[in-house]
Amino acid sequence: MKILVTGAKGFVGKNLATELKNRGYNDIFEFSRESDPSLLEKYTKECDFVFHLAGVNRPKDENEFMEGNFEFTSQLLGLLKKNGNKAPVLITSSIQAEKDNSYGRSKKIGEDLLFNYSKEANVNVYVYRLPNLFGKWSKPNYNTVVATFCHNIARDLDIQVNNPDAELTLCYIDDVIVEFLKALEGNPTKQNDYCVVPVTHQIKLGELANLIKSFKESRANLSIPNMEEGLTKKLYSTYLSFLPENDFSYDLKMNCDQRGSFTEFIRTPDRGQVSINVSKPGITKGNHWHHTKNEKFLVVSGEGLIRFRKINSNEVVEYKVSGGKLQVIDIPIGYTHSIINVGETDLVTVMWANECYNPEKPDTYYEEV
What we know:
The protein has helices spanning 11-22, 39-46, 63-82, 102-121, 145-154, 173-184, 205-221, 230-241, and strands at 2-6, 27-31, 49-52, 89-94, 125-130, 132-134, 167-172, 190-191, 194-195, 201-204, 254-257, 260-267, 273-279, 284-289, 295-301, 303-310, 316-322, 328-331, 335-341, 347-353, 365-366. The chain is an alpha+beta fold.
């Protein structure tokens, strides 16, 4: 199948073309502002499907709305009609098409062009009125407020929140692409004459700003938000895509002494915390037990001995562990436990606890194994 993608260098176009290639579609005609205009004649002769994504939403002059959102659409459909090509056409419109502004009017006229073309040429068309899109490769101060917030917050730049209670409808780029691929297969999600992306998210502008700020703060407080909430997961991924390339890394606080070190890595509100423990040769750590806190130990380097003794019992249980064989050891409640470095190199252990450490309620009681 030969697929024409207009606006291929834009936010949606780049994501779509990349995923089409991932799915094994190799004949993709990518057309953008920089392309030789004569290529459109060739592409409209040969294509089997058209993703018409080209458009203007932040012009220097309002006349560019009509040029980018109406005139180019008219040219594209005229070439398809001239070449007798009945390939289905998908066009990206906007929820702004319902409003009486320059951008909305240009989008509405583009929609009407496509619907008329469908009737005249007996061609399947898919008109998507998209809400506020966000995701990787979007442009700050152009595509979406999410891109602007992510870009600025990642760089300690100010953001502007005029109305914190303003309601936004957001749609993630990956959900858009999934829906577009369904349309490519002839199975779009329709509501009356229009097609829709079925997965959208509602959030207030102030909440959005605070959530993205929390992503930046998580490097200091190590707190990772609950990713089960779909919007948070998608926004966090988007935020990371806006990190400056010289700022991918961040330091952790290592609590060091003569025995080695203990470093908290990740804290979560619902899934506990992950830490990295380093023990020097011959060192024993632990010798404590918990009422409710439970842990998992995973030795990733070195050789160790993990010992257990149930409280009020004399029987000691031992597990030998090493980085040569990755093995998770559960630390049950009511057992005092210790970990001993019995090797000649540092013993490195990844430790998970079902709750974040709280110095006011540590649930940790000293008792030697």
